[in-house]
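Hi everyone, sorry if this is the wrong subforum. Our group has a chain we'd like a structural model of before ordering constructs, and none of us has done structure prediction before. Sequence below.
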Amino acid sequence: MTDDSIIQNLNALMTPSRLEWDPSSTADRQIRPVERKPTDPQACQSFKDEVLFQSWQIRSDVLNYCTGVALNPDDPDLVLKEVESAKERERVVDERLDPYSGRFIPREARTETLANIIRNERSVESIIRSRTWGLVTDRCGSSGEGWEEALNQWRASRES
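Answer:
Right subforum, don't worry. Here is the predicted structure as tokens:
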């Protein structure tokens, strides 16, 4: 979920104003930001349990699956990499004609490439969750726990 969709979801939790809009309220400049009405705690908790943590769990499951694939020792590219390496060792090159042709730059194995991608995705996911949790605690109030603690509590409550 992006910041925009999180904000839209959090705005949807707010109860509509009971007072009609007063056009004269725009006549004077407001120096201080208008105070937000507190969001209904039950609506916030419902949003966290049914929307936010659900989507985080799904993305965690996908990353865990991809990690399993990345760690799979049956890498089909491994044989190809070994063959390329053997060919490069046997190759005779006249470096006077092409000084760069004597260099052998081995290809990264598929598992290494996938592991790097997954590592990057986990870093990005952590940043997104931190920002999202900041928005949620800003609107819903903070119980003092971080997003990891809240997610782990949610997971524990689902298992019991």
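For your construct planning: The helical segments are 3-13, 41-70, 76-90, 110-140, 147-159. The chain has a mean pLDDT of 79.
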